[in-house]
Amino acid sequence: MADKKSSSSRESENSATMATEVNNMSIIPRDIEVEMKSAYLDYAMSVIVGRALPDVRDGLKPVQRRILYTMYEMGLTYRSPYKKSARVVGDTLGKYHPHGDMAVYEAMVRMAQDFSLRYTLIDGQGNFGSIDGDPPAAMRYTEVRLQRIAEELLADIEKNTVDFMANYDNSLLEPVVLPAKLPNLLVNGSSGIAVGMATNIPPHNLCEIVDGIIAYIDNNDISIEELMKIVKGPDFPTGGIIYGREGIKEYFATGKGTLKVRGKVDIEDIGHGKKAIVITEIPYQVNKAQLLETIATLVREKKIEDISDIRDESDREGMRIVVEVKRDGNEQVVLNQLFKHTALETTFGVIMLALVNNKPRVLGLKNMFSEYVQYRREVIIRRTRYELDKADKRAHILEGFKIAIEHLEKVIKIIRSSENVDVARSRLIEQFGLSREQAQAILDMKLQQLTALEREKIEKEYVELIKEIERLKLLLANPQSILNLIKEELLELRKTYGDDRRTKIVSKTVELDIEDLIAEEDVIVLISHAGYIKRIPLSSYRTQGRGGKGVTTIIPREEDYVKDVFSCSTHSYILFFTNKGKVYWLKVYEIPETSRHTRGKPVNTLIRISPDERVSATVVVRDFDKIEKESLLMVTRKGIVKRSYLKEFANPRPSGIIAIKLLPDDELIDVKIVEGDENVIIATREGLAAHYPCKDLRIIGRATRGIRGIRLNSGDEVVGVELVSKEDTILVISENGYGKRTLAKEYRLTHRGGKGVKNMKITDKTGKVVGIRKVSDEDDVIIVTTQGISIRIPAKTISVMGRATQGVRLIRLEEGDKVATLESVVSGANADISSE
Q: Cα 331 to chain center, whole Å?
């Protein structure tokens, strides 16, 4: 058995490694899954290390590093003349980065844009794009040179401070990393998307970063709270305002966090009673032109209705976007809408991901400081050793010069009597005990160095070199001295390049609530059969006597009429129930306020109802947070009823949620809030009504069908439902304008699912029943017709009659007009206000 297994194993190994000869090429079979994993991993690491992520030491991606090094080699310092960008791009491509000229040029452009980098590394001349998203000019038109601060990244690169590697074709050497005296990764930040990971490091203020690193050097155990007193947070080149410090503290500690950034705005009085919102700074990486286009689109779509004009007054002095607010508009409401719907407020997700020893790693702020200090220590040690070696060699040469000067006559005699250079060098070494380098240096001396003045210079240089060698040795021997030198260099950077913070940080987010800015008032909301909606101040309805002509509240389209009207507060919530049994949520103040003579706005522009849906019922809720045991009673056209807890409807999705499941030929007609032990009266078109306690209806889940509430005769249908007590009065109105009030106690209690009792005497003069409403003597009644005529009548002027009566005329109708619906409103303070 063992032999069999061993043989099988050997066969497997042989098949895995067996090579097939095809056209003199060796083909090794390999599992495709293994090959794909290996190839994809190689690709991923190539993207991570060679393209997308910055190195923690110099904060640069390979293409950026190669551009800067190429410019350094070309001598494009901040004092030198500009050179064409195409020249730099060409040298970078040819020498170090053969990945496409546009990739190189785009990276170069970004390093020259003052709205992209906090401290630009390239000084560009020409069109390098704009914050509006305008593209830069072609590379043949623009010119570049290094910024002075960029030279701090390259300083001492010639002093063996960093390792070099072969370029792509092994013809040249390029630096693996730059010496980076400037903590570039933190002050300029970085962003990039690799394979399976991304980095998004925000820029910071140089002064704060320098102070923070120095504080870290002095105390490696410094807390995040203490660091936050020094490094306030990100400092974006475009300014803006960061709201809240929790996200800053989080990414300081963990390397990841979320920041809320807003543009800087002011409210200005522009005369004629008008205000303007002036935007002077926008969040980082926001396109100004797109921001303006978004605002204009919101105005066109009437999602923001109080803006009268938008202007971009930006110039070379700075940004200035003016958003004029209508004379009767609320500038604070408009501002809040801009924050909500546009990029004037953005979220910046921080991911401090960088390459540490060629491995991606998420770093907190202290880790970043640690990596910087450790790297700078290595750079300074290598630089010091280089300078010490150079000084030793020079001192050694100077010692030879001193010997030669002391024995000048003998040296001259030896040189003159020697046959050639090699003989002279050997005789000098033998005669004076010189090294080969010293003897060669003596032979290479110029005659002018033999003058008294030059001899004095040699002596002085030697003394200074001895001191420098001693200083360098002490520096290498004392780690604290190296740290002190790092601090000195940082302070010099701070002094030379430091500037004021641009981004303001607010400790706590000030949430601007639109509801707090909108005055609470009673309004009337009207919904037409065709799906138009508007709100009108309650004062638009004047109180009239019974039998009056009424006033126009809506101008309907052909075959359209007002379907529903109700009173509520601007701060109330509205639940829109559709005939399809779905429910949608909206605030009353989000409904456009218009005059009585306008049609309003389509409901489907405010809530996302489908084309075959229409609003059939609305429920007003003042505050969902205070809801406890309240329930909703839903009634369908076919007499099906259902009770569900109201709290189940507190958070509908934008696309709506199911309120009741319906049969294919049924539809939802009304919904009521049940708060206590009320009874329900369900009225039908043929003048019948069922009256029974709501407690007879058990509470069931939201997405259910319900039970029979009233048994209907053939051709009959439900037209209304009310919740009542014995003392309540029920108003019934017919399609021809006849109506009456009846005490609820006159409706005897029936069983759920029965046919009910007589509700109104139906005749040709009265027409069929249109609806019922519960009213009191303090209420007014608004009656709306199919032609858009409405009348407001005090309820107490309507006679109280028995159940089986036909009532009295409540509104005089024009020929062909019918009553569409009615609504009861509280008269209160507005009862005596006339609209005309």
A: 23
Of the given ranges (180-189, 335-344, 614-623), which has the lowest mean pLDDT? Answer: 614-623
Q: What is the pLDDT of residue 287?
A: 94
Residue 565 pairs with which residues in a beta bridge?
526
**Tokens coding 319:** 């940004």
The fold of 523-830 is: Neuraminidase (2.120.10)
Q: Average per-residue pLDDT in the chain?
A: 85
> Please, what is the Cα angle at 411 between 409 and 416, to 5 degrees?
95
- Residue 578 is given by DSSP the state E
Does pLDDT of 178 surpass 70?
A: yes
**Number of helices and strands (H, E) in the chain?**
19, 43
DSSP state string for 733-768 = EETTSEEEEEEGGGS----TTS--EE-S---TTT-S
As a dihedral over the C-alpha atoms of residue 750, residue 756, residue 761, residue 767, rounded to 10 degrees, the angle is: 140
Closest CA to 439 of 387, 396, 392, 469: 396
The total number of residues written for the chain in this structure: 836
Model confidence at 16, in pLDDT bands (50, 70, 90)? very low
Q: How far apart are CA 126 and CA 142, in angstroms?
A: 5
Domain 372-497 fold is Topoisomerase; domain 3 (1.10.268)
Judge contact between 670 and 617, C-beta under 8 A: yes
Six token digits for residue 272: 């004629």
Predicted confidence band at 734 (pLDDT cuts at 50, 70, 90)? very high
Overall average pLDDT of the 751-758 stretch = 89
What's the pLDDT band for 22 if we cut at 50, 70, 90? low
| Distances 326 to 515, 621, 756 between C-alpha atoms, Å | 19, 30, 55
The CATH number, out of the four listed (3.40.50.1970, 3.30.1360.40, 3.90.105.10, 3.30.70.120), of the domain defined by the range 264-343: 3.30.1360.40
C-alpha 191, offset from chain centre: 15
Burial class (CB in 10 A: 0-12, 13-18, 19+), 247: buried
Enter the tokens of residue 566.
């109700």
Cα distances (angstroms) measured from residue 138 to each of 109, 268, 560, 778:
10, 40, 60, 77
User: Cβ distance 202 to 255 under 8 Å?
Assistant: no
Measured distance CA(176)–CA(186) in Å, rounded: 20
CATH 3.30.1360.40 in the chain is located at 264-343
Output the six-digit token pair for 238.
Answer: 């475009």
Dihedral sign from CA coordinates of 222, 226, 228, 229: negative
Query: Is the pLDDT reported for residue 2 higher than 70?
Result: no
CA distances in angstroms from 47 to 60, 190, 503, listed in the order given: 14, 16, 33
The stretch 455-469 carries a mean pLDDT of: 89
Q: Is the pLDDT of residue 212 over 80?
A: yes
Alpha carbons 336 and 303: distance in angstroms, whole number: 12
Q: Give tens-digit pLDDT for 306-319.
A: 899 999 999 988 99
Residue 106 has pLDDT above 80, yes or no: yes
Write out the two tokens for 397.
Answer: 């040469």
Q: What letter does residue 736 receive in the DSSP assignment?
A: T
CA 206 to chain centre: 25
* Residues 6+ away with beta carbon under 8 Å from 580: 610, 612, 613, 662, 667, 668
Q: Annotated active-site positions, please?
A: 141
What CATH topology corresponds to 60-178? Answer: Topoisomerase II; domain 5 (3.90.199)
